[in-house]
Design a protein that fits this description.
Elements: H1 2-18, E1 27-29, H2 34-44, E2 53-56, H3 66-79, E3 84-87, H4 92-95, H5 98-103, E4 106-107, H6 111-118, H7 126-136
Parallel strand pairs: 1-2, 2-3, 3-4
Helix pairs in contact: 1-2, 2-3, 6-7
Length: 152
């Protein structure tokens, strides 16, 4: 884990050094246990400015237990409450947790496009993403019958 964290820092520094400063660069915290994320956050030091948008890696592997994701996010925010956390690969199970949602600034998930593709629908349709967001918020609506044109 420590080697992976160091490689992540090295890559961040290399990209930052090669950049023009005009393109935002998202730092990514790696870990398995909450203490791992804390150690990695400390290692970033002053690289992370106030209000930085920071990715949280490896949470996609904990989808069955949103509380575990919550503990990781809470650990990070306890040290740096100003950070805007991005959850990589966060699925519906975790996103339905109000605690997890409240600690994330943003998240990405392939779940909505995957479900559309498996259901024979257009995986690139913005409405699929919208309906997924509605499901996260608990406002689930059935998917419209494609053969019936919508009036609205």
């Amino acid at each position: 884990m420590r080697e992976h964290q160091q490689l992540t820092l090295d890559r961040f520094d290399a990209i930052a050094a090669a950049g023009t400063g005009r393109t935002p660069l998202m730092a990514v915290l790696q870990g398995w246990r909450p203490a791992d994320y804390r150690r990695h956050l400390d290692a970033y030091g002053d690289r992370l400015g106030k209000g930085a948008w920071v990715g949280v890696g490896s949470v996609c592997k904990r989808q069955g237990d949103p509380r575990a994701i919550g503990v990781i996010l809470e650990t990070i925010l306890r040290v740096r409450p100003d950070l805007r956390l991005h959850g990589f690969g966060v699925k519906l199970t975790a996103l339905r947790s109000p605690a997890v949602r409240s600690m994330l600034f943003s998240a990405d998930s392939m779940a909505w496009s995957y479900a559309a593709r498996r259901g024979g629908r257009d995986q690139n349709d913005w409405m699929e993403a919208y309906l997924f967001a509605e499901r996260i918020a608990g406002r689930s609506r059935p998917v419209a019958d494609e053969s019936q044109p919508s009036l609205f």
